[in-house]
Amino acid sequence: MTNARLTRRLLAGAALAIAVPVSTAAAQTRTARIVAADGVQRAITAALAEAKRQGWNVSIAVVDNSGDLVGFLRMDNASPGSADISQAKARTAARMKRPTRALDSTLTAGRVAILGLPGVTPVEGGVPISINGEIIGAIGVSGATSAQDAQVAQAGAAAIQP
Predict the structure, then answer these.
(1) In tens digits, what is the pLDDT along the chain, a chain of 162 residues?
(2) What are phi and psi of 117, to 5 degrees?
(3) Which residues are 63's β-sheet partners?
(4) Nearest Cα to Cα of residue 87 among 153, 155, 159
(5) Rg of the chain's alpha carbons, rounded to an integer?
(6) Could you give the CA distance from residue 110 to residue 74 in angstroms, rounded to a whole number?
(7) CA gap 68, 137 in Å, rounded
(8) What span, in angstroms and rounded, lies between the C-alpha atoms of 117 and 145?
(9) Count of CB atoms within 10 A of residue 52's CB?
């Protein structure tokens, strides 16, 4: 084999080796939408307005679609424990992709095994935030009754528009 022919084969092989990972990498990734800072602010502002309107002192947590905290507010006179609980409710709603009320109902129906799921808080008050059917985050509220927490969380989730 001549040097020129060998060089062409090596260059062709190198080009193929470079091209394959690029197309393979594209097939191995996806674009995920998450709640942005403006959305976080809108959700907290709407939830805060609902809590104030009702006279409830609560903590409000917003997480991204992975359940990581992206925004938080503890109202004056809200219980210190409500801070952790609001975050746990939001994380559960994001990761389980459903309102925590559904998990609360499952537990009430006697499926106590749900208590063994790691990181799951089956207490009403966590609501997913979705845009066009895609979960982009969640909001969790704690400090009032569970149903009242859910009402505040729903107001926050509804404030985020596509």
Answers:
(1) 566 665 566 555 555 455 555 566 678 888 888 999 999 999 999 999 999 999 999 999 999 999 999 999 999 999 999 999 999 999 999 999 999 999 988 888 989 888 888 989 999 999 999 999 999 999 999 999 999 999 999 999 999 987
(2) -75, 130
(3) 69, 138
(4) 153
(5) 23
(6) 33
(7) 9
(8) 23
(9) 13
Beta strands (DSSP E) in the chain are 59-64, 69-74, 126-131, 134-142
Round to whole Å and give the CA distance between 81 and 102: 23
As a whole number of angstroms, the distance between CA 42 and CA 37 comes to 9
CA distance 60 to 84: 10
Nearby residues of 162 by Cβ (< 8 Å), 6 or more positions away: 131, 132
- Give the residue among 92, 75, 107, 74 at the shortest CA–CA distance from 139: 92
Is the separation of the CB atoms in 100 and 108 below 8 Å? Answer: no
CB atoms inside a 10 Å sphere around CB 33? 15
The answer to whether the beta carbons of residues 160 and 59 sit under 8 Å apart is: no
Residue 20: both structure tokens together: 């394959």
- Torsion 42-45-46-47 (CA) sign: positive
